[in-house]
Design goal:
The chain is α+β, with helices and mostly antiparallel strands. It is built from ten helices and 13 strands.
Amino acid sequence: MHKSCALLLLVALFGGSGLGWFVDRPAIAQTQSKKTKKTTAKATPVKAKKKVKATKKKAVPANTKKKTVKATPVKTKKRVRVKPAPVKASRRTKLKTLKVARPAPTKRRTLKVKARPKPAPPKIVLEGEPVRLLNYTLFTLYAPKGSGQATTRARLVENRLTQLLKTFAEKPLEVQAFPGPGKAAQVMINNQSLVTLTQYELLGNGAPHGLGPARQWAGNLRQILNKGDIQDAYFTYAGLPSLLNLGGVTYQMNRQLAKDYGLFTTDGTQQQERVVYWRDGEQRPFQTIYLLNRNRQFVVYAARQEQAAQ
């Protein structure tokens, strides 16, 4: 009922044309829908393109990034870097200038040395005592004055020298100087120690090391040992017996040397492990016999006068 009334009203208002419009409206609607479909189909890519472009523009926050990047360093520069930068630079430059302008260690060292001088060592007053061999002075030993050590050491070295000369009386002698221990030095005879130079000998001779004075002492000792009276006293008759007994006759050493002219002979007879010689052609009992010393020299032994007269 309601629908029919509505139709009648429409017919009355619009007439036939209006009714035709109403009847054809679904076809028109279909055509319109087709058109809209076409337009929509065509328009969708355009809108999509526009949207894509728009999204691209919106998605690139270039301006905001630049603004934030620029803004942050400006703030940090103002707050952190700009204000304390001159203070830090000034401190560094001060430190650098202090490091560069530092020739001060030498001044400080000299000031320390001047302010704290080392105490001078106490002066030692020395006294010397010579070491002698017969009438020859070999060298001088030193010790603090009034201690008596120099005299005691000198007598000990003289006794030691006499003992060594007797020990090596029939052997070649080698007098040498050796360094040590420390700044000291030693004088040795056939690798046997004779004397050691102490700090007092260094002070007495004004030498920084004992080897120099030790060499001088060794050279002086070699020269003195080669003198004739030293040879006679210590080497010429060294090791020879003072008395010999041959064929019931006693012979005594005269401490004389006989020149060798080729007139001495022997049959191999020995006394105290030494070969006895006599003049060629002389008859027994002999008035004089001979023994060889360390230097291959003939030493004279004469028969005692009582036995010679008999």
